[in-house]
TrEMBL record:
It comes from Davidia involucrata (Dove tree). Residues 100-318 form the PPIase cyclophilin-type domain. Signal peptide: none annotated. It holds the Pfam family Pro_isomerase. GO terms for cellular component: chloroplast. This is PPIase cyclophilin-type domain-containing protein.
Length: 320
């Protein structure tokens, strides 16, 4: 049999473990404080005083802040009450008279609008509107058209201050001047805060806030050059009126509220749905022309928002 010789495997050298020297840990410092009984008593009393002071001051500041907040709230409520009282005193919500307007669109009867008039709130404006509705002024709104339809109101053209209308008004002694209406509008505008032309309000137009200033030009008189002012556009004659289909604060600067719609608001809404001529006032060319007082811009502006259909007051008057 074969004999296997086992040679002894070489012995591995012993593993050398290297020990990394470590630096000695720093010595632990121990602080020792020694206080006398007197110092401990003083520290305790000081801490107690600070604690009591913080607990005492916080409620004081809190109560003061609450008092200031309550005072501000009271002042705010008082201001709101004063504003509401002022608004209520300016707007007489009890109509003293009633007027009616029978409307037709393109010859088709549309319905009747019944208007309550505030004779106490605007006596001059109410008298003007009543005389024009009833015909007591020698002329009336009968067979006169609505000339402008805006997103928030519709505007009636009123009567003319020249021609046949002016002659008829002169025969009855009626005055179409707007001086007294302007004075009444100024008083209402200054004394009554907030929006006055609310939805359903009926107002007389007394001024045109968009009217440009007079145009200055040189005129030769008696061999001398003199500066003259030429009026651009015409002032309203105090017979045009508007009916607000929405709250219209933009009308407060030009219209005097004389009443509100009591019945027939659906008729006013039908008028507001009539198609109109496109408004081109946003054009830069139109703005420049209006700014320099170009008469063509004034004439063109009269056609903006004019209804394509013929919206007419067929009949009008006062109700008992």
């Amino acid at each position: 049999s074969a004999q296997f010789l086992h040679t002894p495997s070489p012995a591995l050298p012993p593993t050398q473990i290297q020990h990394t020297p470590t630096s000695p840990s720093p010595p632990i410092l121990k602080h020792c404080c020694k206080l006398s009984r007197r110092e401990l008593a003083i520290c305790s009393n000081s801490s107690l005083l600070l604690l009591l002071g913080s607990q005492t001051l916080d409620p004081c500041h809190l109560s003061k802040a609450r008092a200031e907040e309550n005072g501000a709230t009271t002042d705010k409520n008082d201001g709101q009450e004063e504003n509401s009282k002022g608004t209520d005193s300016c707007i007489d919500t009890t109509p003293k008279k009633r007027a009616f307007l029978d409307i037709s669109i393109n010859g088709e009867p549309t319905g009747r609008i019944v208007i309550g008039l505030y004779s106490d709130n605007a006596p001059v404006g109410t008298a003007r509107f009543s005389n024009l509705v009833s015909g007591a002024a020698g002329i009336s709104y009968r067979r006169k058209e609505f000339i402008k339809i805006m997103p928030s109101y519709v505007q009636h053209g009123g009567v003319r201050s020249y021609g046949v209308d002016a002659e008829l008004a002169t025969k009855t002694g009626s005055n179409l001047a707007v001086d007294s209406l302007m004075a009444e509008w100024e008083k209402s505008y200054q004394d009554c805060p907030g929006t006055k032309n609310l939805v359903g309000s009926v107002s007389i137009i007394v001024r045109d806030p968009s009217k440009p200033p007079p145009k200055v030009k040189l005129v030769a008189r008696k061999g001398k050059l003199e500066i003259d002012e030429e009026e651009v556009g015409k002032d309203p004659n105090g017979t045009e009126f508007v009916i607000a289909t929405k709250d219209s604060p933009e009308l407060d600067a030009s219209a005097l509220v004389v009443g509100k719609v009591l019945e027939g608001m659906e008729v006013v809404e039908k008028i507001g749905q009539v198609k109109t001529v496109q408004d081109n006032t946003s054009s830069p060319y139109f703005r420049v022309a209006k700014l320099i007082g170009d008469k063509r811009a004034v004439v063109a502006e009269r056609g903006f928002n004019r209804p394509y259909a013929k919206v007419v007051v067929m009949n009008c008057g006062l109700l008992e």
